[in-house]
Specification:
The protein is α/β, with parallel strands linked by helices and about 290 residues long. It is about 35% helix and about 20% strand.
Length: about 290
Amino acid sequence: MAGIQPGEDKVRVNDINMHYVEWAGEGSAVLCVHGLTANCREWDRLAEGLSPKYRVLAIDLRGRGDSDKPATGYGLAGHAADLEGFLNALNLEQAVFVGHSLGAGIGVYFAANFQARVSKLVLVDGGNDPADMNAAMESIRVSLSTLDVSFPSMDDYINLYKQAPFLKQDWNEYVERYCAFDVETGPDGSVRRKVPRKVIEAEISTYGGFELRPLYHRIVCPTLILRASQGIMSETDFILPAEAAAAMQQAIRNCKLVTIEGTNHYTIAIGKRNDFVETVRGFLEG
């Protein structure tokens, strides 16, 4: 059975149209920011667990999903400027920031440079320096290999991910919903991912040499780091290695680190386990 369906809209921010989905709620705003090649629907599971107590807003970063895809403006500073504009457009002075993977890196940058706009920060399997991720790069390329590729049908695209070793054990309605939103359908029924390869190449070239460690001491809000216990495709290909997570916890004041057992970099957010949602909810209520 499909879960609660959010409303969706676009706002004009920094000369682009930014698409977002919203789960209505009476409490604090929770701004959710996805990973490198992902989209706003990776947050459906969390949003349904937080709404209606919280107002959950999940955006498509520039270049992804149904947001505009300009040639420039990528990198942490560009995304942070977009997020500041997004909060301004919705008349939000402050929000809880939840970021996964690249979104967590953006969260570190945003919380360090826009301190008054972030009430609490949740970093989901990310937020560490890109240099820590070298062991995982080959696994990341599996996702990149599907960019600018046409698949004969939606079923062909879905089946590819159903067989992916990092997803097939945790396949569920949230993963399927996320994958369905990730593509656009051509007149002949073929599908292609909405994010162009050139966008990701621009992102990686900008992000690759950036150091996040110097920003940790500038984060003043309560922070929760959530780490996946398993590698993506092996025992060593972690996006957030244990040593990097421990160093982050030590450097960020008022910071808690939780490892979500039985999850990898993808299933921590959209897998079958409830630990992720329950841990975030407990942090927000604490």
